[in-house]
Amino acid sequence: MLPLSLMAQNKNTQKIVEQIGNAAQSMKSMQCDFTQTKHLKMLNDNMVSKGKMYYQQTNKLHWEYTSPYTYTFILNDTKVLLKKGTRNDVIDVNQNKMFKEIARMMMNSVVGKCLSDTKSFKTSIAETSTEYVATLLPQKKDLKQMWTKLILHFDSKQLMVTKVEMHEKNGDYTIIELQNTQTNKKIDAKVFAIQ
Q1: Measured between alpha carbons, how far is 170 from 139 in angstroms, rounded to an integer?
Q2: 16-32 pLDDT, tens per residue?
Q3: Which among 16, 153, 157, 171 is least surrounded, fewest beta carbons within 10 Å?
Q4: In whole angstroms, what is the distance from residue 165 CA to residue 121 CA?
Q5: pLDDT, tens digit (0-9, with 9 covering 90-100), for 42-74
Q6: Structural domains in the chain (count)
Q7: Do the beta carbons of residue 186 and residue 167 sit within 8 Å?
Q8: Alpha helices, DSSP H, located in 52-91
Protein backbone atom coordinates (compact mmCIF):
# COMPACT_ATOMS: atom_id res chain seq x y z
CA MET A 1 0.00 0.00 0.00
CA LEU A 2 2.77 2.46 0.90
CA PRO A 3 4.38 2.62 -2.58
CA LEU A 4 0.94 3.21 -4.13
CA SER A 5 0.17 6.10 -1.79
CA LEU A 6 3.62 7.59 -2.47
CA MET A 7 3.03 7.29 -6.23
CA ALA A 8 -0.35 9.02 -5.86
CA GLN A 9 1.26 11.76 -3.77
CA ASN A 10 4.03 12.22 -6.37
CA LYS A 11 1.48 12.48 -9.20
CA ASN A 12 -0.58 14.93 -7.17
CA THR A 13 2.58 16.95 -6.34
CA GLN A 14 3.54 17.06 -10.04
CA LYS A 15 0.03 18.22 -10.94
CA ILE A 16 0.11 21.01 -8.30
CA VAL A 17 3.63 22.09 -9.38
CA GLU A 18 2.39 22.27 -13.00
CA GLN A 19 -0.68 24.31 -12.02
CA ILE A 20 1.42 26.77 -10.00
CA GLY A 21 3.99 26.94 -12.85
CA ASN A 22 1.24 27.74 -15.38
CA ALA A 23 -0.18 30.44 -13.09
CA ALA A 24 3.33 31.94 -12.72
CA GLN A 25 3.78 31.98 -16.52
CA SER A 26 0.51 33.86 -17.01
CA MET A 27 1.37 36.40 -14.31
CA LYS A 28 3.02 39.28 -16.16
CA SER A 29 3.22 41.49 -13.05
CA MET A 30 2.41 41.44 -9.37
CA GLN A 31 2.37 44.05 -6.64
CA CYS A 32 1.54 43.73 -2.96
CA ASP A 33 2.25 44.82 0.58
CA PHE A 34 4.21 42.52 2.86
CA THR A 35 4.87 41.94 6.53
CA GLN A 36 8.17 40.31 7.44
CA THR A 37 8.73 38.72 10.83
CA LYS A 38 12.30 37.69 11.66
CA HIS A 39 12.58 35.42 14.71
CA LEU A 40 15.98 35.50 16.40
CA LYS A 41 16.39 32.37 18.53
CA MET A 42 19.33 33.75 20.54
CA LEU A 43 17.36 36.82 21.65
CA ASN A 44 14.01 34.96 21.73
CA ASP A 45 12.63 37.99 19.94
CA ASN A 46 10.73 38.92 16.78
CA MET A 47 11.62 41.85 14.52
CA VAL A 48 8.67 42.96 12.38
CA SER A 49 9.05 45.11 9.28
CA LYS A 50 6.64 46.11 6.53
CA GLY A 51 6.95 47.14 2.93
CA LYS A 52 5.92 46.87 -0.71
CA MET A 53 6.90 44.43 -3.43
CA TYR A 54 6.63 44.73 -7.22
CA TYR A 55 7.40 41.97 -9.72
CA GLN A 56 7.41 42.02 -13.50
CA GLN A 57 8.23 39.19 -15.87
CA THR A 58 10.79 37.99 -16.44
CA ASN A 59 13.57 39.46 -14.34
CA LYS A 60 12.36 42.51 -12.42
CA LEU A 61 11.79 42.71 -8.69
CA HIS A 62 11.42 45.72 -6.38
CA TRP A 63 11.45 44.88 -2.66
CA GLU A 64 11.09 47.94 -0.42
CA TYR A 65 10.99 48.09 3.36
CA THR A 66 9.00 51.10 4.57
CA SER A 67 8.87 50.53 8.35
CA PRO A 68 10.45 50.57 10.89
CA TYR A 69 13.33 51.50 8.52
CA THR A 70 13.66 52.17 4.80
CA TYR A 71 15.69 49.91 2.56
CA THR A 72 15.20 49.03 -1.11
CA PHE A 73 16.38 46.06 -3.17
CA ILE A 74 15.79 46.31 -6.94
CA LEU A 75 16.66 43.53 -9.36
CA ASN A 76 16.52 44.49 -13.03
CA ASP A 77 17.84 41.67 -15.22
CA THR A 78 21.49 41.23 -14.13
CA LYS A 79 21.82 44.41 -12.06
CA VAL A 80 20.85 44.90 -8.42
CA LEU A 81 20.45 48.22 -6.66
CA LEU A 82 20.67 48.33 -2.86
CA LYS A 83 19.42 51.63 -1.52
CA LYS A 84 19.67 52.70 2.12
CA GLY A 85 19.29 56.37 3.00
CA THR A 86 21.53 58.32 0.64
CA ARG A 87 23.73 55.32 -0.13
CA ASN A 88 23.18 53.42 -3.39
CA ASP A 89 25.14 50.28 -4.31
CA VAL A 90 24.82 48.68 -7.74
CA ILE A 91 25.90 45.06 -8.09
CA ASP A 92 26.24 42.97 -11.24
CA VAL A 93 24.82 39.59 -10.18
CA ASN A 94 26.95 37.84 -12.80
CA GLN A 95 30.05 38.99 -10.91
CA ASN A 96 28.87 37.58 -7.56
CA LYS A 97 27.76 33.92 -7.50
CA MET A 98 26.22 34.08 -4.01
CA PHE A 99 24.31 37.25 -4.80
CA LYS A 100 23.10 35.75 -8.08
CA GLU A 101 21.73 32.75 -6.17
CA ILE A 102 19.96 34.97 -3.61
CA ALA A 103 18.44 37.16 -6.35
CA ARG A 104 17.30 34.07 -8.29
CA MET A 105 15.80 32.55 -5.13
CA MET A 106 13.90 35.73 -4.25
CA MET A 107 12.48 35.97 -7.74
CA ASN A 108 11.58 32.29 -8.00
CA SER A 109 10.01 32.19 -4.53
CA VAL A 110 7.74 35.14 -5.26
CA VAL A 111 6.12 33.37 -8.21
CA GLY A 112 6.63 29.75 -7.13
CA LYS A 113 9.09 28.81 -9.90
CA CYS A 114 11.45 27.20 -7.38
CA LEU A 115 9.02 24.27 -6.97
CA SER A 116 10.18 22.79 -10.28
CA ASP A 117 13.90 23.40 -9.59
CA THR A 118 14.82 19.80 -8.73
CA LYS A 119 18.57 20.52 -8.78
CA SER A 120 18.24 23.08 -5.99
CA PHE A 121 15.42 21.59 -3.90
CA LYS A 122 13.66 18.41 -2.92
CA THR A 123 10.00 19.42 -2.78
CA SER A 124 7.00 17.94 -1.00
CA ILE A 125 3.50 19.44 -1.04
CA ALA A 126 0.71 19.15 1.50
CA GLU A 127 -2.87 20.28 0.91
CA THR A 128 -5.36 21.95 3.22
CA SER A 129 -8.86 23.14 2.35
CA THR A 130 -7.55 26.61 1.37
CA GLU A 131 -3.88 26.25 0.49
CA TYR A 132 -0.99 24.19 -0.82
CA VAL A 133 2.02 24.11 1.48
CA ALA A 134 5.29 23.32 -0.30
CA THR A 135 8.32 22.33 1.78
CA LEU A 136 11.60 22.77 -0.08
CA LEU A 137 14.75 21.10 1.25
CA PRO A 138 17.96 22.60 -0.20
CA GLN A 139 20.12 20.20 -2.22
CA LYS A 140 22.98 22.51 -3.24
CA LYS A 141 25.82 23.20 -0.81
CA ASP A 142 25.51 27.01 -0.99
CA LEU A 143 21.76 26.85 -0.32
CA LYS A 144 22.26 24.43 2.58
CA GLN A 145 24.59 27.00 4.14
CA MET A 146 21.77 29.57 4.12
CA TRP A 147 18.66 27.53 4.91
CA THR A 148 17.56 24.17 6.33
CA LYS A 149 14.20 24.51 4.57
CA LEU A 150 11.88 26.92 2.80
CA ILE A 151 8.12 26.64 3.16
CA LEU A 152 5.91 28.32 0.57
CA HIS A 153 2.17 28.74 1.12
CA PHE A 154 -0.02 29.08 -1.99
CA ASP A 155 -3.67 30.07 -2.16
CA SER A 156 -5.20 26.94 -3.74
CA LYS A 157 -7.69 28.94 -5.85
CA GLN A 158 -5.43 31.70 -7.20
CA LEU A 159 -2.26 29.54 -7.12
CA MET A 160 -0.23 32.47 -5.80
CA VAL A 161 2.26 32.67 -2.95
CA THR A 162 0.71 34.13 0.21
CA LYS A 163 3.47 33.34 2.69
CA VAL A 164 7.17 32.35 2.60
CA GLU A 165 9.02 30.82 5.56
CA MET A 166 12.84 30.63 5.53
CA HIS A 167 14.41 28.47 8.25
CA GLU A 168 18.12 28.81 9.04
CA LYS A 169 20.59 26.33 10.60
CA ASN A 170 20.94 28.32 13.81
CA GLY A 171 17.19 28.17 14.57
CA ASP A 172 16.40 31.68 13.30
CA TYR A 173 13.59 31.96 10.79
CA THR A 174 11.89 34.62 8.67
CA ILE A 175 8.22 34.67 7.70
CA ILE A 176 7.04 36.96 4.89
CA GLU A 177 3.29 37.37 4.43
CA LEU A 178 1.98 38.98 1.24
CA GLN A 179 -1.20 41.09 1.42
CA ASN A 180 -3.36 43.19 -0.95
CA THR A 181 -1.94 41.36 -3.96
CA GLN A 182 -2.76 42.67 -7.45
CA THR A 183 -1.69 40.89 -10.61
CA ASN A 184 -1.24 41.93 -14.24
CA LYS A 185 -1.60 45.66 -13.55
CA LYS A 186 0.74 48.08 -15.32
CA ILE A 187 3.76 49.04 -13.20
CA ASP A 188 5.67 52.26 -13.94
CA ALA A 189 9.14 51.44 -15.38
CA LYS A 190 10.67 53.85 -12.79
CA VAL A 191 9.90 51.29 -10.08
CA PHE A 192 12.63 49.05 -11.50
CA ALA A 193 15.07 51.81 -12.47
CA ILE A 194 18.68 51.29 -11.36
CA GLN A 195 20.51 54.59 -10.99
Answers
A1: 18
A2: 888 888 888 888 899 99
A3: 157
A4: 15
A5: 888 899 999 999 999 878 999 999 999 999 999
A6: 1
A7: no
A8: none
- The alpha carbon of 135 is separated from its chain's Cα centroid by a whole number of angstroms, namely 13
Which class for 32: exposed (0-12), middle (13-18), buried (19 or more C-beta within 10 A)? buried
Q: Please state, in angstroms and as integers, the Cα–Cα distance from residue 31 to each residue in 28, 104, 111, following that order.
A: 11, 18, 11
Q: Domain range holding 135?
A: 2-192
Gyration radius (Cα) of the chain, Å: 17
CA atoms within 13 A on the CB side of 45: 4
Give the DSSP H or E segment for 23.
Answer: helix 2-26
pLDDT tens digits, 124-148? 888 888 999 999 999 988 888 888 9
Per DSSP, 175 falls in state E
CATH classification at residue 136: 2.50.20.10
**Those residues with Cβ within 8 angstroms of residue 41's Cβ, 6 or more apart along the chain or in another chain:** 170, 171, 172
CA pair distance 17, 113, nearest whole angstrom: 9
Cis peptide before 138 (omega within 30 of 0): no
What type of residue sits at position 147? W
